[in-house]
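ugh ok so i messed up the first submission bc i forgot one of the chains. this is the corrected input, ALL of the components this time, i swear. 554 residues overall. if the numbers dont match what u have on ur side tell me asap before i send this to the collaborators (the ones from the other lab, u know who)
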Amino acid sequence: MFEHEGLSKEFEFVTKKSEIKHIGDSIKNTSIKMQTIAFALIQGDQDTVGQLTIECLEEGISANEILDNGLLNGMSIVGVKFRDNIIFVPEVLIAARAMKAGMTHIEPILSESGIEPQGKVLMGTVKGDLHDIGKNLCIMMLRGSGFTVYDLGVDTSPEDFADGFEEYQPDIIGMSALLTTTMPNMGRTIQYFEDVGLRDEVRLMVGGAPVTQEFADEMGADAYGDSAIDAVDKAKELILLLKDLRD
Amino acid sequence: MVQKLKPNAQKILHDIKSKKIFLLDGATGTYLQDNGLEPGGCPELMNKKNSDVISSMADIYFKNGSDIVLTNSFGGNKYRLRHYGLDNEVFELNKLSAILAKEISEKYIEKFVFGSIGPTGEFLEPLGSVSEADMYEAFANQMSGLLEGGVDGFLIETQIATEETKLAIKVAKENFNVLILASAVYDKGPKGYFTMFGLTPKESLQIFFESGAHVVGTNCGNGSENMVEIAKQLRSFTDNPLIVQANAGIPKIKKQDIIYPESPEFMKEKYKELIKNKINFIGGCCGTNSEHIRLFHDLIRNHNESI
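and heres the new structure output, hopefully the right one now
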């Protein structure tokens, strides 16, 4: 299939037609080095990902190419494997760490050269809730997928979210909750954005163990992510919609 | 290594052999929220500041038929309590939680108390930054408090991280002479039921029993229908003691109120399947109340009287 045998094997986990085409096309014409990076990322081999990223940059390969053809191709396969119950949270965390090992070298170059990130996301666990594992997982995955993420931490009030919006001007705000008691604070934050006239300025996403699509719809969120990987997909969709609007 | 289980723990194991089913309690968190726990407040602090609420909760559940009540100590480990600046009070808050429930249990005949031990919210190395030694110490401290307060068992519940669950079981096994119950959360994915860390029900049984748990099972989850499915799977792989405690469905929000959709009658109907599948410990998780317990008790009483 591809020049890199291991990556070809990993690609066998992609079974949906549209994804075979999409991810397959994206990998097809990439160099063996890029495929090696993608494979190392899927394996969670952060040392190799970091080393190869440095090597490639030294050889004059652009940061963008390493991101698109190496790291993100690997991450796409990780996402599919996670959704389809082939790998689970630990493996995703380790792959995200490998992604970060590459991004450490790429990010400064991207920001220097003025290349826009995928989008800007402001994240926080809502007021009254001190749980941050899910939120942190989402942040890792978003950063790994090329988003710039600002983290407001836990116990974030509607006012804090609004202040954060003013300060960072994100495209998307992501709210997380683990407790059923704090879930309503997502709705309250959305209402607060309405009240202060900011609702149309930003897209609001929600997620967390007890949160459902139904609940997200009911409180008027723009998107719901049912896992960290899904959150990245939803964030990408929102960014595309925003781009269309702005064009 | 602890040799002999304390008499109450032995008695429970003995009664299971004669097919008795034990009824645990309903939700703790939901009860506390209805009785003064503010969003973002520390549930375990109520053992000290609102001990009357904790005692009443135990009393209500025992009165409605629970054989075993859980302590209010789910987040009583140093990592969770640190968020409230209470990590120096781990032992005391856990001990108190046990004393409160134990005191009430002694008003009745043959009632027991299990210490609730929830996840730490941290990841062990190499995935996270917490060392095994540190977490071992943390569990040991929490369990010491619970034991000192008089619990008959530890329910290591709502577990998602395999190594953490194994460690908690190990700490209990190596240091304490009470029953050890290990209960995990499963999500239904395209390939069936898995924990967040990828264990199937079958794998969990093997790993947790091998680690030294006396009882293995599941709690929380996405409603009693799924829990019955998981229970059937678990039972199909083992004759060992099992525990199942379901949520009253996935919560919905109505006008800022949290509504758990599964009524006591609905769950009672589903729970008949748990009895059919010889689940030895049955109870309710989030959203279940004393009325759920009362109806489960009807079911279980019928069974226990027929043995």
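quick check: Chain B has a mean pLDDT of 95. that seems consistent at least. The radius of gyration of chain B is 18 Å.
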